[in-house]
Amino acid sequence: MRFIITILLAGLISTVGWSQKKDETAIKYANTLTKEDLKKHLVIVASDEMEGRDTGSPGQKKAAKYIADHFKSLGLKPPVKTKDGMSYLQKFDLVSSKWKNVSIATKKGKTEYLKDVFAIGNINKKIQKSMKVMFAGEGTKEDYTKFKSKKKPVAFFVKTVQDLRKKRRIAQNAGVSQMFMIMGEDQEGFDKSLNYLGYYVKRWSRGGLKSNEDSYMVCVSPKTAANMFGVSEAELMKKDMKLGTKSSKFKLTAEQEVKIGASSENVLGFMEGTDKKDEILIVTAHYDHVGTRGGKVYNGADDDGSGTVTVLEIAEAFSKAKADGKGPRRSILFMTVSGEEKGLLGSRYYTDFDPVFPLKNTVADLNIDMVGRIDTRYKDDPDYIYLIGSDKLSTELHKLSEEANKQYVNIKLDYKYNDENDPNRFYYRSDHYNFAKNNIPIIFYFNGTHADYHKPTDTVDKIHFGKMERIGRLIFHTAWKIANRENRLKVDKKSK
To answer: Nearest-CA neighbor of 217 among 94, 295, 118?
Structure first.
């Protein structure tokens, strides 16, 4: 009996101690984030007037102005330097490109474009260079441990198009400088790969960022690869060549046509911190969607109007705290990005081309994408949120996130999509990834997909604003803890 009483008392003391840890100031300002205000913003952001907010469109620019005006009304600073002064808008151009020619010349002769070789990606200018590559076998993680591949061009086998993305990422993680992919087991296999990818290879790209460095992959037939290594095709396909074997010298020629199209904008609002103001926390969502199709407006209420208005409300809650003399110790950048639907363009522009604040000073990114609906797994238990990436780079961030939830919101945190083997690979598919690849800790808040995803039926009337309110408050409390803790979050894991 004494043992049982001791346990009960310990539990009571633990509960009391836990409740004493609550920050009443944080609760006060978190509670200013309401479902009514979320809806007030979303009926505008996801209205027909915004025309689906397609990147570079007039509707997207209307949405950008609405967000910038809100940031201004909160007293957030415009942090972007322009020739006309400081701005809330970070402009970037959309560039389209198309491959004009790719060829490889060996002692056996010169390849024919789209018969023996093609390429994927972007280049800055015409390439003409003599080079050698190293053989990387099947291009597995284990293969790269058996020879020095860092900053070296490599060639490896890719059996199917489905293998391409996975093996590219493995090669990138191994630090290779350039990739040559041997597509298929024979010419027929190469032709199938080209047929599958041909639409993307032959057409103008849909509009991306002008590359600040060459980022491309050369896909070659087994016959071409054999000529590069000075062996017969049959010998090459035995696949017993020693890893790290160098090819014979060959000449690579590659050329693209490039044209500049529309422009788009990220919208940034900055709140300066106090004693730790040089350290920056970023809160992001993408405000672009897919526009109009067939005369129908794709409103994108959940994707990602829900994340966008959550950022607006979190910014407002922090602004109220700052106005009362309770501002954060660290600075906070509230950023809604464009171009996510076209390949994470806006966030990549920020991290790769124009980080307004040094990435080395950026302590974390909290990214919010699709938090207004309920997926089929939780139709009977909607009080949940999928968290992705919280433990990928920082053990401290993961613990802080769990603590914030237990103290203040107690919503179910589901890590289903955080599994490295999850086939959806959501970790790599939203704007937080451009920060994560730079070893900046992130959390991705997500409620899963649904039947209205990328359809004109993703509308405001289907949004669960009470649920959004709870998620928004969880993110606010997490941001509050990050911004006000004594020590910067420790990065104790490597980016993948």
So the answer is: 118
